[in-house]
Amino acid sequence: MISSDLEACYICPRNCGVNRYHEKGYCRAGAELELNLAQLHFGEEPPISGSAGSGTIFFSHCNLRCVYCQNSYISLDGHGTKISEERLLEIMLELQTLGAHNINLVTPTHFSIQIASALRKAKAQGLTIPVVYNTSAYEKVDTLKSLEDLVDIYLPDYKYHHSVFAKKYSQAADYPQVAFAAISEMIRQKGFLQMDSQGIVQKGVLLRHLVLPNGLSSSRAALQMLASEFGVLLPLSLMAQYYPAGNAGAYPELNRGISNAEYQKALDVILELGFVNVFTQELSCDDTWTPNFSSKGNDTIA
Question: What contacts 57, CB < 8 A, 6 or more positions away?
């Protein structure tokens, strides 16, 4: 089925306007779905992964160009397999059969039209577990509105508070204001986290903030803004997993992992501001990362 939205693509803030049946825009994705991997994943925050795993689907390509991307092989180089919408809905149902707590759509923005179609069919055929939209937050509000009845949980990043860093490292000078508007819409739709009796998220927003070396993520300013605009009940995940992947070696200020002191400084701001629902990560002893999370405060929100 041909979609008019793909004949002139304005799905994301890049507003390329290309006909994706014949050419590719900034994200380099065509009209056909492409995914790299689908599996049960245990490295997300505890209420996402739980004990049985998150049914994670990694899509190829991305509408950002983060120079330090840890998945650049997938997001920037576009490695993956082309599949039909029918196969995508089958994968979702297979992951549910395997016991996944949710369907976790990773970097889905540029395929949101096709994903929405597959989700409608999958739900009609028995998909009942929650759907997670795992995103950089470089999203259009209108695109998010089109997903309101299909997505249960939003897992956005808030990468930068200053446009100069957003432009230099992700080629998106408008990222701070675009991400803020997108996160506001996500919270309007789903509110904060709602758990089941086993502590697994069923609905809501969990916001991630990646600590970058040398203060490049402007964590204090970012966290102050988030507290001011959304309140201290906003669930946060403070990410310690940065290491110099991708093309980060070309930027001396990015060419190392973060230090314990840098991570602790961001955590101190969170505690100072009074955030109550916070997930933290352990730092590794080398330039790789560990997905181990712990929580500060009450991580279950009614």
Answer: 35, 37, 38, 88, 91, 92, 95, 103, 104, 105, 106
pLDDT of residue 220: 97
How far out from the chain centre does Cα 30 lie?
A: 21
The predicted model gives 272-288 an average pLDDT of: 79
Instruction: Give the per-residue pLDDT at 299.
Output: 32
Is the predicted pLDDT of residue 294 greater than 60, yes or no? no
pLDDT at residue number 290: 40
**In whole angstroms, what is the distance from residue 238 CA to residue 252 CA?**
23
Distances (CA, A) of 58 to 39, 40, 75, 148, 213: 9, 11, 9, 21, 26
Order of strands across the sheet with 207-210?
207-210, 236-239, 277-281, 293-297
* Domains of the chain, residue spans: 32-297
For the domain bounded by 32-297, which CATH number is listed?
3.20.20.70
- By DSSP bridging, strand 81-83 and strand 103-106 are unpaired
Tokens of 55: 């049914």
Pairwise CA distance, residues 258 & 12, whole Å: 31
